[in-house]
Amino acid sequence: MITNLRDARIAIIGAGSMSEALIRGLIRHNIALPHMVFVMNQSNQDRLQELHRRYRVAIPAVEADKAGMIREAHILVLAMKPKDIANSLANIKPLLNPKQLIISVVAGVKIQTIEALLERSLPIVRSMPNTSATIGLGATGISFSSQVSEQQKEIASDIFESIGVVTTVDEAELDIVTGLSGSGPAYVYYLMEALVKAGMNGGLSQEAATALTMQTLIGAANMVKETGESPDVLRHKVTSPGGTTNAAIEVLNQYQFSEGIQHAIARATERSKEMGEEIVKSMNLK
Ligand SMILES: NC(=O)C1=CN([C@@H]2O[C@H](COP(=O)(O)OP(=O)(O)OC[C@H]3O[C@@H](n4cnc5c(N)ncnc54)[C@H](OP(=O)(O)O)[C@@H]3O)[C@@H](O)[C@H]2O)C=CC1
Ligand SMILES: O=C(O)[C@@H]1CCC=N1
């Protein structure tokens, strides 16, 4: 039984952006030792080499190494796309043992579906982190199958706390967590893109517009965090009657800015559910 994360062999299946965010967070924050982290993917060798060069994590030298890495892992992280989970679990199913802890970051796919694909009940943690985990500022929603022990809950929470903040939620709430904070960084980047474009349209250089945009977002987020005041109160403090901000907010309201964001998140939440259901249907699972 693993009591210290640094003694745990962690096998990460999938080597994409979310996988790298987790790897970088774990290694840079000294939560896991590089030689204890085993990363594998479907076929992209260049990508595995790149992760090895960057973080010194272990990668399979030949295809046959994957089986041993999975068999000997204490913790298995599922980090492939939802459409690939059935195929991937079919491959690893014979290699698993009941002592292993499975952590999924796969959007939309229910614990029940993972169990059905594995044809057994194992300790499964379903999570929804985001890519800001890369710099230790991730936001993760997490839920647990009934097989997960208290000690395993702590281990999983420690992993995600090492790369940001963690909120335990009911599994059904992970779809809204996905729509809000899983996809959330993309909405903020989209806003930043628009702010930079607006600055450049007004005559600023790209560098100046980017620097001002970035600091504005960091400053605003930290104001909410450090003053404890609500975004609504802080917004009103910026908005002088008859002033520039008020004029801008009137335009945003004409474009239904707030409603647009809320609809977007509702759609992402719905999409998370759909992606889970698509797998259930395609595999004829219950
Ligand atoms: N990106 C994000 O912001 C977030 C993503 N997630 C979730 O994380 C998961 C991964 O997303 P992301 O990193 O963006 O995806 P990417 O497309 O960047 O990476 C997917 C990885 O899965 C690998 N893969 C595919 N099939 C298999 C297989 N059968 N066995 C082993 N590995 C396989 C791919 O390997 P190869 O390249 O060789 O095909 C690739 O390395 C998704 O389920 C997503 O929902 C969760 C939170 C945030
Ligand atoms: O877009 C996606 O499906 C994934 C899940 C959350 C963020 N990226």
From TrEMBL:
<dbReference type="InterPro" id="IPR053790">
    <property type="entry name" value="P5CR-like_CS"/>
</dbReference>
<comment type="pathway">
    <text>Amino-acid biosynthesis; L-proline biosynthesis; L-proline from L-glutamate 5-semialdehyde: step 1/1.</text>
</comment>
<dbReference type="InterPro" id="IPR028939">
    <property type="entry name" value="P5C_Rdtase_cat_N"/>
</dbReference>
<dbReference type="InterPro" id="IPR008927">
    <property type="entry name" value="6-PGluconate_DH-like_C_sf"/>
</dbReference>
<comment type="function">
    <text>Catalyzes the reduction of 1-pyrroline-5-carboxylate (PCA) to L-proline.</text>
</comment>
<keyword id="KW-0641">Proline biosynthesis</keyword>
<comment type="similarity">
    <text>Belongs to the pyrroline-5-carboxylate reductase family.</text>
</comment>
<feature type="binding site">
    <location>
        <begin position="13"/>
        <end position="18"/>
    </location>
    <ligand>
        <name>NADP(+)</name>
    </ligand>
</feature>
<dbReference type="InterPro" id="IPR036291">
    <property type="entry name" value="NAD(P)-bd_dom_sf"/>
</dbReference>
<keyword id="KW-0521">NADP</keyword>
<dbReference type="InterPro" id="IPR029036">
    <property type="entry name" value="P5CR_dimer"/>
</dbReference>
<feature type="domain" description="Pyrroline-5-carboxylate reductase dimerisation">
    <location>
        <begin position="171"/>
        <end position="275"/>
    </location>
</feature>
<feature type="binding site">
    <location>
        <begin position="79"/>
        <end position="82"/>
    </location>
    <ligand>
        <name>NADP(+)</name>
    </ligand>
</feature>
<dbReference type="Pfam" id="PF14748">
    <property type="entry name" value="P5CR_dimer"/>
</dbReference>
<feature type="domain" description="Pyrroline-5-carboxylate reductase catalytic N-terminal">
    <location>
        <begin position="9"/>
        <end position="108"/>
    </location>
</feature>
<dbReference type="GO" id="GO:0055129">
    <property type="term" value="P:L-proline biosynthetic process"/>
</dbReference>
<keyword id="KW-0560">Oxidoreductase</keyword>
<dbReference type="Pfam" id="PF03807">
    <property type="entry name" value="F420_oxidored"/>
</dbReference>
<dbReference type="GO" id="GO:0005737">
    <property type="term" value="C:cytoplasm"/>
</dbReference>
<keyword id="KW-0963">Cytoplasm</keyword>
<keyword id="KW-0028">Amino-acid biosynthesis</keyword>
<protein>
    <recommendedName>
        <fullName>Pyrroline-5-carboxylate reductase</fullName>
        <ecNumber>1.5.1.2</ecNumber>
    </recommendedName>
</protein>
<dbReference type="GO" id="GO:0004735">
    <property type="term" value="F:pyrroline-5-carboxylate reductase activity"/>
</dbReference>
<dbReference type="InterPro" id="IPR000304">
    <property type="entry name" value="Pyrroline-COOH_reductase"/>
</dbReference>
